[in-house]
Write a structure and sequence with these properties.
2 strands; two-stranded antiparallel ribbon; single chain
Length: 130
């Protein structure tokens, strides 16, 4: 008995070639931490630096001398103060207008509620005289 066989034709299949992905990996320059037992080499001399002048002081006779802050601190404080005063000055009239309108609206609602309550009292049967 013959075993049936099938012949499968071989076909060349073209494949698409996909390139490998590439990327620029971020990197950083590592920080060098000195060892904990770091010492000056023998024979090294310390560098002489000029001492900064002492901060200016405000002298008022009954008080001790008061140190004056640096220019950067004074400029920052002055800018913050001017901004706060300007914001308050500009927003105060707006807030007062909103407050007046809100009070007027609420007072109107309260008056209407009182009128409705009074009408209900007048129209209730227990308040009528027989």
């Amino acid at each position: 008995m013959d075993i049936p066989t099938i012949e499968i034709p071989v076909v060349d299949i073209d494949t698409v070639e996909i390139p490998l992905p590439t990327a620029e990996v971020p990197y950083y320059i590592p920080m060098v931490v000195p060892p904990s037992d770091l010492r000056e080499p023998e024979g090294a001399k310390p560098v002489q630096t000029a001492e900064p002048p002492p901060p200016p002081k405000l002298n008022l006779p009954p008080l001790p001398p008061i140190p004056i802050p640096s220019t950067e601190v004074l400029v920052t404080a002055a800018a913050a103060a001017v901004t706060a005063v300007a914001a308050t000055t500009l927003t105060q009239p707006i807030i007062e207008q909103i407050k007046k309108k809100l009070q007027k609206f609420l007072q109107g609602r309260i008056n209407k509620w009182k009128q409705n309550r009074q009408k209900k009292k007048e129209s209730s049967p227990s308040s009528k005289k027989t």
